[in-house]
Amino acid sequence: MITSNLKKFYDPTFTVSNGYKESLPDLQNGPASLIEGANVPIQQVGISNFKLPLQFPTRSGDVLTLETSVDGYVHLDAGKKGINMSRIMRSFYKFQNDVMHQDVLEYVLRMYRKDLDSKESFIKLNFNFPMLKESLRSDLSGYQYYSVSLEGHMNEQGVMRRFIHMDFVYSSACPCSYELAEHARETRNVAAIPHSQRSVANVTVEISDAMHIEDLVEVCRDALKTETQVMVKREDEQAFAELNGAYQKFVEDAARLLYEKLDEQANIKDFVVRCAHLESLHSHDAVSRICKGVPGGLR
Q1: What is the pTM of this model?
Q2: Quick check: 205 and 296 in contact, CB under 8 A?
């Protein structure tokens, strides 16, 4: 029914009293009788991609302020209609001026459990982390950006699990293509160029102790050798071609090389890696997945 006598007017002077605030309807926190569908628990309820500038520590002791996308969730029991979504953001904003060490994430997760009366809580911070990368042979340098997520999960017993997700971009030169190109040169004196492609390793590690992002980057660099370059002159381009020739790899090789180096890190409890070679020969990608193999761990 349309009510014609409603005022179409916004009053900027209106003040909310305590009594008026108490009178506001709150269906989201209503009784179980208002539940739609099955009255069962929901593993994660919350909000995703609220953004703010946050401070992150570097290995050198400096602090970087980075635009960050935050996901916050809690567990919802059966018998509860919903949660107060705004508390996810309001609770987090209490820590907006803190440097985002792992212990800060633990405080946030404990506050989520308390403020939203939940058994479990989840947090994920998504950002691009810059590192200055020197060119291979020239005097140039430029910033390489790494897509990183810090994730925390606290269970009903108050035990926290901590994860780092990172995308590492590298070049992969195909060993088979190299041999075929050499064969064409040697047997028929025909110019042939082996194919290589930009590739990406999606790395997730569960850590037992704090780990600097720079350390995880260096583990990947040490494993794969052929990270893409930022600033190049002709001598750098030639060096990169030599580097790819020295460290040719199939996608299976990339996964195993990362496994070897990640498995050596004492503060990494578990890991899972997905390598994708974005083929220049094929119209599809070559993919390899590998995990540490911890019972009940990451898959």
Answers
A1: 0.92
A2: no
